[in-house]
Structures are given as C-alpha cells and as structure tokens.
Design a protein that fits this description.
By secondary structure, this protein is an alpha/beta fold. The protein has seven helices and five strands; from the N terminus they run βααβαβαβαβαα.
C-alpha cells in the first residue's frame, strides 16, 4: 500500500511519535511525506519514507494528482485546527473524498487506519489500482 504521511507544523512531533509506535506495521508499506517530514521520520524510526518537494501547496497538488489516479491508498494528515488555513479548500482532501481513499486527520483515526491496514481491511484498494 502507498501511504502518505503529513502533518501541520505543530503536529510534526505527534506524527513522528505515531510512526515510532506503529513502525512494525508501517514498514510493510511504501510511505511518502514532504522532504523535511520524511527526514524526521527516517531519523527517528529508520523507516523508508520517500521525501517530496518541501513547498507545501505544490506538494499537496502533486499528491492530489496521484490520488486522482489511485496511486495513493491511504493518507494520514494530522491537521492543526488552530491554523489560519484549516478551513481552506485542499486539493488532496478533495481527491481523497472523490476517489474513496481513506483519510485520517487526527490521531484517533490514524490509529484506526493503521490497524485496519494491519488486519487487511484495505486490501480492496489493490483492486482499484
């Protein structure tokens, strides 16, 4: 499975801790993140995370494009509701909704999503691709 790992600035540490906790499960999948986030995760967990461009809006558009072509199977995007652009339209979130790609935006749903991956509940995504 292709998993995208993203976090708003104040949620980076939470995402890294999440990846440490679930590194056994995540290690069996291909993961993508923004360059700096990927580096933080790799340094803390030794997971193989592919880093994308650090420019956030361009990266989100790139990921949205991949989602539109079903090249992404799940997104964990720990969002900060206190940011100014929290309610702004986001191409990646829209692409996930349009293409039925599981999306977790907080720690509780991220845990559910990773545990579902581990159980094989998302194996149907292989048929979509």
């Amino acid at each position: 499975m292709n998993i995208v790992l993203l976090a708003d600035h104040r949620k980076h540490e939470l995402l890294v801790n999440f990846c440490i906790a679930y590194s056994q499960i995540l290690s069996r999948h291909s993961m993508y993140a923004l360059f700096n986030t990927a580096r933080l995760i790799r340094d803390a967990t030794r997971l193989n995370v592919t880093g994308l461009s650090t420019e956030i809006s361009g990266s989100l558009d790139q990921l949205a494009s991949r989602a539109s072509y079903n090249e992404i199977d799940a997104v964990i995007y720990l969002r900060d509701p206190l940011t100014e652009n929290y309610d702004a339209p986001n191409a990646l979130l829209k692409a996930c909704d349009t293409n039925s790609i599981p999306l977790a935006t907080n720690l509780a749903t991220a845990e559910l999503l990773v545990l579902a991956l581990d159980r094989g509940d998302l194996d149907w995504r292989e048929l979509v691709r």
